[in-house]
Amino acid sequence: MTISRRGVRLPSLNRRNLLIGAGAIAATGLLGTPAIAQARSKAVLAYGSTGYTWALPYVAEAAGLWEKANVDLTTSSFETGRDSMQALLSGSADFSASTDTPLVFAALTGLRPVAVINYSRYSRDMKLAVRKGGAVDPKNPASLKGRKIATRIGTSGQFFLAKYLELAGLKLQDVTVVDLAPNNMTTALARGDIDGFAWTSQTVGVAQKQSNGQVDEMTLDGIEKYFQSHQLLLTTERVLKEKPDLVNTAVKVFLEAEARIANDKNWPQTIAERIKTPAGDIAEATSTFTFKLTFDERFVDDLVSQAQWAIDAGLAKPPKGELRPLLRGLVADGPVKAAQPGRVTLT
User: Fold this and answer.
1) pTM for the whole structure
2) Which of 15, 69, 85, 229 is the least crowded, having the fewest Cβ atoms under 10 Å away?
3) Following CA atoms 111, 338, 123, 54 in sequence, which dihedral angle do they give, to the nearest 10 degrees?
């Protein structure tokens, strides 16, 4: 035994006790190497519908990239991106996978979802289907004039239709727009209730199969100039402030998923069961997608164009200020820029 300065008897520190003590210190992490595993983060991701539109985040899940990043991810699916964004804004989700349309409409109503990742985009996945041999010539966009065209009002489908008519030299007033749920579009076209519909290539593919090939696709030549849809990971200013590490992790996870899609030609197989779509169909449909995390001026241009369309169509009221500063203010490009500086060219 030894005596402390206060006269209290302490155990003598022989070699054995020193080794035991050192082991205890190491186990508690006092030597700088914690033996207890780092606590896992938790995150909730809300999807707008289920389909290959969300291919990149689905691949991230299928490849276990969230788990690899020490995050327990919970997901939920809603009928539309608008619904998933509401889950985000209500605080029941940390992230929302959405197209740019819900972001634009939210901004015009004073809400503030934030685009933290712009991970894929396309110009040709939205299509315009017409009856084969019908009144509309699929090679002549101008032949849509005076026809009944279905879409879902207030969605990217209606925006695509408006931009397609612009390509054709027409205005939305030059056609009769019929508001239909996607599941009813094929039947309405077959019955002759409508002359065509504007929706996803997946729906057009189903229509072609169900009609035994009696559905034609309108030409998309030149559409890239007029229409581009962006797939986004949305979050909130609260999450950015309170969970910055989680947001940075999400960026890293999405970058890894991007690399997986680029380097593994069999990636569609990993999500085929989830979205109930053959891998070959996924590969064909997404061949028109660009899978790359970027924020550029075209992105904000597209947001402004869509917002102006919504205002002109009477679907939203104009904001008090200018559109571009409003929408640019809802782009949080910092996390992507920190991970990949060359991917952000916004001013």
Assistant:
1) 0.83
2) 15
3) -70
